[in-house]
């Protein structure tokens, strides 16, 4: 006689009608009455199906058996020994699966008669977040207004684009640093979009041109810039000093001591000012968008660094809450998303990071 149990993890919510449980693998919710909740609780970590059927009295056995079959079909109850999930979600967990399900098939109202009304409602409601973040009371380091020319061909930049983990220790020049920040994070021009007003055109793609990504630089070895933590003001192409005492060791503690995170000339922590997206895109799928945008910015950074003769590095392996504490941001409004770093790359071959061999060593077949 087979045994069944309640699913190990379930995503639940309260609605006006009572407790609801997310149906695993579907963008649906099922309301659990008090009786069904008691049935799931009784199943516990394992019980024979027949024992569960009679646990609430013989007079209720037919209804209980029917409810058990329904809950098994929904995945709220599962056979003992069955994780109830495909291997992917066994590895990533139920919260990740629910997130994936809830962000699928969003209605974007493209070419829909409802679009104009929705846009009008959003704009009329006000509360649009600022397009730029600034620290007007902090000391400012203006950056050169004329970027360095990027004369390398696209073919050469693509061929040389690598993730570097070893640096010479030589300084990066102020012009290199300013050029890299400008192309990676600053607007190049502006356009008018109608109801949503003026939008920025940056090198990197951004959902709805919301450009929620902010950059904070920990300068280690840049000519003309004192070491410290700075916010990059994209509006005025300048550095705003937040903390003049952020040594490499402190960055190391935040990044699990990954040397290339802090051994180059500078470290950039990028964040997402999430409400810039949420104000316009008011559905769970929008939570994906800052991830895409952070990646767009990271690739622009890496390609620009390569064109300038620098070695880029990037990682998401850092302690989010401690990075946000270092930056002094509210994690409910702005959160750490990506670490970018660069320096003068070690090695004579620009096509090859110094800690890799090419071609790969021969292996016996």
Automatic annotation (TrEMBL):
Pfam families: Nitroreductase. InterPro entries: Bacteriocin_Proc_Enz (IPR052544), Nitroreductase (IPR029479), Nitroreductase-like (IPR000415), SagB-type_dehydrogenase (IPR020051). Residues 159-343 form the Nitroreductase domain. Gene3D superfamilies: NADH Oxidase. Coiled coil: none annotated. PANTHER family: NITROREDUCTASE MJ1384-RELATED. This is Nitroreductase domain-containing protein. It comes from Streptomyces luteireticuli. The lineage of its organism: Bacteria, Bacillati, Actinomycetota, Actinomycetes, Kitasatosporales.
